[in-house]
Amino acid sequence: MTGRTNARRKGSPPPSREPSQNDSPPPDAVAEVVTRFEAYARARAARDSLLPGARTVPWHERLAFDDLQAAVARLRDGMR
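Predicted structure:
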């Protein structure tokens, strides 16, 4: 014997691994995070564009990142 106790004792059911409905994030919040991420990815890619007209200014990228962070925070708050 190793001295460890068995976590599952006889007669007790195994812990449920199925997520409850409360564990799933609100679909609107997930969609917003995806949308904000795509906007940030476009702004970041445009920063390094070869075409001068397609480049963005640093504040545009920062604004997109701030929007992404706010959407993630709302998603986390909705999960609690």
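Summary: Helices lie at 27-47, 58-79.
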